[in-house]
Amino acid sequence: MCPSYSIAIHGDGTAIFTGKAFTDVRGEHHFRVSSAGLAALEDSIRSKNLWLTATSYGPPPIDGQATFLTLAMGTRQHRITHDEEQPDVPMAIRRFEQEVMAVVHADEWIALTPRIVEQLRVDGFAFQSREGTELLERAIASIRDSDEQAMLDLMALGVPLNAGMMDLARKHGRTRIVAALHERGISGDAGSTEEH
Questions:
Q1: Same domain, 53 and 120
Q2: Residue 10: which CATH number?
């Protein structure tokens, strides 16, 4: 159940989030980070001397608990590998990873928020598609704190709805989503009403 994803941030401010498994948003999505956020990360790499850290900490990571951090500047590259549970990972590395997560709002790609729905809209995401339906289904069923307003925003953007969503919303106690689906004529497993 551990989220599997990658984040790439380039020197020109372009960034890519790629959701692989156990994230609300899946696939590759391009966006930009602020110049202030980018500058802060560059300063952090220098101040924490990350170029001088070891390349691995502890035994080889167990699948699903691994973190791979790659720094690259020109032809210079430094890759750091560690298990999330490994206690001897320097605090500087952990703090930098948290800084990266904050700059790209990674938690919001993992557990959907209105900010990410808006980012997807700006980027031309095809909400009225099977991908849109799957995104909403994952958000409704998420064990993480996905934002119900984000789900309502998806509905407003024309995500195709289905009876399974009502069942998921009831199962996960998403009362606002149950009400919104009911308003749109979605009844759950007893019926097969679908709105496009």
A1: no
A2: 3.30.1560.10
